[in-house]
Amino acid sequence: MRRVSACCFTSRVWKTRSNQKHPQISRETMESQKMNNGNDNSAAWIAKRNKIKSSASTTTNIVINNDFSMGLHSWHLNCCHGFVVSGESNYSEGTSTKSVGNHAVVTNRKECWQGLEQDITSRISPGSTYKVSAWVGMSGPLQGSADVLATLKLEHQDSETSYVFIGKTCVPKDKWEKLEGTFSLPAVPDRVVFYLEGPAPGVDLLIRSVAITCSSPSECENKRIGCDIDGDESIILNPRFEDGLNNWSGRGCKIVLHDSMADGKVVPQSGKAFASATERTQSWNGIQQEITGRVQRKLAYDVTAVVRIFGNNVTTATVQATLWVQTPNQRDQYIGIANVQATDQDWAQLQGQFLLNGSPARVVIYIEGPPPGTDILVNSLIVRHAEKKPPSPPPVIENPAFGINIIANSELSGGTNGWFPLGNCTLSVGTGSPHILPPMARDSLGPHEPLSGRYILVTNRTQTWMGPAQMITEKLKLFLTYQVSAWVRIGAGATGPQNVNVALGVDSQWVNGGQVEVSGDRWHEIGGSFRIEKQPSKVMVYVQGPAPGVDLMVAGLQIFPVDREARFKHLRRQTDKIRKRDVILKFSGMDSSSMLGTFVIVRQTQNSYPFGSCINRSQIDNEDFVNFFAKYFNWAVFGNELKWYWTEPQQGNLNYKDADDMLDLCKSHNIETRGHCIFWEVEATVQSWIRSLNKNDLMTAVQNRLTSLLTRYKGKFRHYDVNNEMLHGSFYQDRLGKDIRANMFKTAHQLDPSATLFVNDYHIEDGCDTRSCPEKYIEHILDLQEQGAPVGGIGIQGHIDSPVGPIVCSALDKLGILGLPIWFTELDVSSTNEYVRGDDLEAMLREAYAHPAVEGIMLWGFWELFMSRNNAHLVNAEGDINEAGKRYLALKQEWLSHAHGHIDEQAEFAFRGFHGTYTVEIATVSKKITKTFVVDKGESPLVVSIEL
Predict the structure, then answer these.
(1) What angle do CA 852, 855, 859 make, to 5 degrees?
(2) Which of 485, 497, 695, 841 is buried deepest, with most CB atoms within 10 A?
């Protein structure tokens, strides 16, 4: 007689499971608890599979990673824990697993229904019959046998979740049994999840070789709806208007089909027809198509449109492709895909990408943008699944010649040979300039020969751009980072400070090599950097900037490639000094002689240093994003959802729901949050209703904003950026007076004394913006403090290109004098080459982590298509970690300390480790003991007492 397990399924109600005691947590939280032991390529796998035409003789397993050869990749754990055991291992507490290959172990099960699951929504077809098989086993506190079940969970947008029983098998302890069953769905709901469940709580479930196959593959392929994305097939129906206006509609306006317009002057670029959106009364009016059911979440799509404008005396206007998404709970999302500057003279191509994180109720793509009264003409609109781009190869740079100046005759020993005047100015040589290298170059180059003391004198300047120039085309190497350094000075006759800039003309583009504000009769250091990533035909470097009529002096101009690895060696030593602490583990509770020689293993489980990222509301609907974010970051900042234009787009219409959702997610993962930002001083970012207020009403609105935000979130945000980018904007100060900035800080502190209040601005650290150089920032902060503003922290955004360590460090050293904590609040780096991007990111992370004044680093995002800059992401749109992301993870691993050894005669074990959380394992003759402890900051050794 077969024994029935303690968790009996014979009376289960399969249609709905409302009587089951599921933990009361959100779906997002449940999904975020899955373990992911590799890159989530499931979306890419699905897309690739959908391009393969099945034949009747081919049986395709729709389960991803069915043999667990990639760990638990693509599998979710249903509120429990799990791991994968290899074929060479022996899972000792139960079923013998030698020679059975990889298998999953699902443990820490508190309910019968907890097990392993996988979303198969996009890989099944309605009406097709699927066969299911899996080998299953059990281990742990089990007497006799128990049932293991295969189940489908069907999630519906407008009704209760339902469950479909597939099959079950009775599994004795220490044996593998094959579970088999079939299922067929008349229609595919919003979400279909396959999972295995069953043994009593506390019993581990073992799983291997899972298969779901269609009994008739060709039939399944024919029935698939919305999943086949052949190379040239657009998910837009009638994309070129070959079938008239079928499937198209006007968004708040009228649409008309044309074969030509304007007496034949406007004709299609391709095909026989185009459409116009006409009688437009709003900028968002345009032509649209609903694509609900034809796009899949977590897949990237390419969008290409051919557009132009017509009428209303507008000759050029921005035309934009936008996605309107309605969520299942009836919330609207608008996703800007791409825009192009279109004209009334010719067709223009608009290109972009998008990705849906959540499961939408409706999706509409539309073309919008020009002012009312201007027609939008559309010749075609194509949307396809984006092809995966191969990773960029590492650049091969032969003989980089680190530290070698590429400027000819820099010391002017041959007069002005090699130099020429840009414009009708005059070059001559003078003497009396500094004999030492500027400090930032000296930090890069080390000991160096003295400079000659000669300088180029530029006179007869009639334009700001006139100055000394030199061609350097043949001397540059692609993908090398070059540091720029020089001494500069201006002559008499200037009215106020003058900007001096080292610039490069790269074909038709201007590249900033660094700039400085110069005043008085002294020499100033100018420092900067640049990198060229596309082969140019001509590169000219020149020095420019002072007002016409002001003489310019330039000495010791150096442009040289930087040796980052040499810098990294220095930073590693510095990091060891300031981010580690000596630790002494002191053992007691046993006779000292018996403890002597006992083996100790110390592992750091978490570095306590704040590494955070920007997130946005839509991303938290993507469980792959959440998993990566929660695993590799411990701080968060919201990209837009706390900004005033988001929380109150129209006066009195408050929206805190997005920020609330994001806070809930962060809290569930023990992630700290920064509040960005209470106000934004740049006028272009201020919503129109605020710009229309008079002075008194604006003051009232400012007070209401402070009270509303800080009262609601009191104690929930550790930091606030009070008034963003005050060095680059002055909207509130211009209208409300100078005191308003300090008053914002004072009021914020009164409303939430627990929050640290930051200033926050950009281009502080890179030497390319005189408005926000460290000296200006220091002056700005001191001015606020003199007015009583409780400034508690300095935010450096860190949107940087081709960073050079000594330039960044110089800015940090200067700001560090103020004694305030410095945070990189919006760090991102950009390069078309993933390896170079990784180099830049490593340079910035090492500089920040090695500097004693920097107390936290926030990335401005990491996921492709959800960042403010192109070519800055660490994870590709569909979840693949790129080379820059791998560099970040390698650094995170490097900054964890591990040690092992034996307890000494004093019953102690000593090591030096990074600040953070540790576990220590001690194996004595009779037992194995594990303890947890925390290493915090401190100069003296930390003594941790451990009772054995």
Answers:
(1) 125
(2) 485
